[in-house]
Structures are given as C-alpha cells and as structure tokens.
Specification:
By secondary structure, the protein is an alpha/beta fold. The protein has 2 domains: 59 residues, Orthogonal Bundle (Helix Hairpins), CATH 1.10.287.80; 207 residues, Pyruvate Kinase, Chain: A, domain 1 (3-Layer(aba) Sandwich), CATH 3.40.1380. The protein contains 5 helices and 5 strands, in the order αβαβαβαββα. The chain has a 5-stranded mixed beta sheet, with helices on both faces. Helix 1 packs antiparallel against helix 5 and helix 4 packs across helix 5. It is elongated.
Length: 290
C-alpha cells in the first residue's frame, strides 16, 4: 500500500506533467489558428485549379487529341508509382501519425518495393517508413511553425520529373485533411495522371475554346497544378498536426486533473487512517496505564 509520502510525490509529479501538457496545448492552439487560416486560404485556389485541370484535360484529350501532347497528361498502365507522404514533425499528437501511416501502408500494400519511390515530409514519416523496404528518393523536415511554398517546390518538381521521364506511372499524395481541431481525415489523392471527373466523356458538357492553343495553355498550367496541390496538402497537414496535438494535450491535461483528484482523495484517506491509528494508540496506552 502506498504511503502518504509516495502519494504526495505522485501528486507533485502529475501536477508538473499537467503544467507541461497545458503549456503545450496553449502553444498548439496559437499555432493552429495561424495554420488553419493558411489552410482555408489555400483551399479555394487549389480546388478551383483541380476541377479546372480535370475539365481542361478531358476537353483537350477528347476534342484536340492530335494537337495536345504533354507528358503530365499521359495515361499509362500503373506499374511504378511515387508517393508523397506528409507526416508529423513531432509526436504527442494522439493517433494522428499512426492513422496517417496506416493510410500510407494501405496504399503500398502488395506492391513490389522496386516499383515504389517515396518522397517524405516530417520526421515521424521518415522514421516510420525508413524501416520499410521502399526506397526513399527525397526526405525533408516539415516547417510546422511557418511553412512556405519554397519548402515543397523541390518535391513537386521531383515528382513531375519522375512522371515525365516515365520512371513512374502515377503519383499519389498521402496527407491529413484538416476538418477541425478534433477531426483530421487521412487522405490519399491521385495527383498524376489527372483523371477527368467521373471518368466518363459525358461528364464534361462544355465546349472549350483555347487561347492560346491547348498545348501551350496546359503546358503552363499543369506544373503549377502539381505545385499547388502539394503545397495545399502540406498546409492542410500542418494544420492537422497542430489540431491533433491541441486535442491530445487537452485530453492529457484533463486526465491529469482527474488523476490529481483521485490521488488527493487517496492521500486524505491515508492521512485520516494514520490519525485514527495514532488516536487509537494513545487511547490504548492510556487504558493500559490505569
């Protein structure tokens, strides 16, 4: 049975932990606000470019197939792939990184390691996937405090080069889409080749007139599309990490408070039992002297 000294020591340790988790929650909340604003600002442009490129690629392929030739539009049997995995930079974020790595492993499941090339962001993603047999062609830390477009430009250029040179036949993005501070949804997005919406010709009823010509227009837009989607995934991942950490630290702080209450109750019971025992000994001694 724990003594009062042991219980006091445990209460002191738990209070110190509670102060740390509460401080981490406050830091994560402050960073989450800025990251959420950046993620929400990046969404409209990235979404509009995504749907526009889907439509333009279908229109170009269907109506001007003889005029348009661009390596990023080429559809090939999917034998080799590249995957950009954006994980957490630090721990103490609950199940955030575990669920994200589970999505990445599910994407790679059953594939020959020789047919996969990984581009990784975040120390947690690097440390997890480094133990797997898949080759890592590029890895980088994630500037969780203030991510910039320049931080992901190299990775976007690398996957464009791999796809254009036919080293890979498809490129996937694995990241956590930010919904709110409590919900971060692991997402696997097929970045290249661009697939028309629904995969049906009748899904694009609009007739497009290209000015300048379709090949020149798509040649300028496609690289920007890849860069934009990678950056959008990165800012979503940063917001998701801060949200997951804030939620985890909030729960940890609350659990520490409950543990302190339980330990305090145990301490009071132990103290009361000690006082009662001393009183009984005094009474017993007085009775023995009579």
């Amino acid at each position: 049975m724990a003594t009062m000294r042991d219980i006091r020591r445990r209460i002191r340790v738990v209070k110190n932990i509670q102060q740390i988790t509460n401080a981490m929650k406050m830091v994560a909340a402050a960073r989450l606000r800025r990251a959420q604003e950046r993620a929400e600002a990046a969404r409209p442009y990235a979404d509009k470019m995504f749907y526009m490129l889907e439509s333009l690629s279908r229109a170009a392929i269907l109506r001007q197939a003889q005029e348009v030739e661009h390596p990023l539009l080429e559809v090939r049997p999917e034998e080799n792939i590249a995957a950009i995995v954006i994980g957490a930079e630090r721990g103490l974020a609950g199940s955030y990184n575990a669920s994200l790595m589970r999505a990445a492993v599910e994407l790679l499941r059953g594939r020959d390691p020789g047919t996969v090339k990984l581009i990784l962001f975040g120390r947690k993603a690097v440390s997890f996937l480094r133990r797997r047999p898949y080759p890592i062609v590029m890895s980088s830390s994630l500037a969780a405090a203030n991510i910039q477009f320049a931080d992901v430009r190299g990775a976007a250029a690398k996957v464009r080069e791999l796809f254009a040179s036919r080293e890979v036949d498809a490129v996937y993005l694995v990241y956590a889409k930010f919904v709110n501070a409590a919900i971060q949804r692991p997402t696997v997005l097929k970045l290249l080749p661009i697939e028309p919406p629904g995969g049906k010709e009748e899904a694009i009823p609009t007739e497009y007139i290209f000015e300048p010509d379709a090949e020149d227009l798509l040649g300028r837009l496609l690289p920007k599309y890849v860069d934009t989607q990678v950056f959008r995934a990165a800012v979503e991942a940063v917001a998701s990490e801060h949200g997951a950490r804030m939620t985890a630290m909030t729960a940890a702080t609350s659990n520490a408070g409950e543990m302190i209450d339980t330990l305090t109750l145990s301490y009071n019971k132990a103290r009361q039992a000690a006082i009662t025992k001393e009183l009984l000994e005094i009474v017993g001694g007085a009775e023995a002297l009579r």
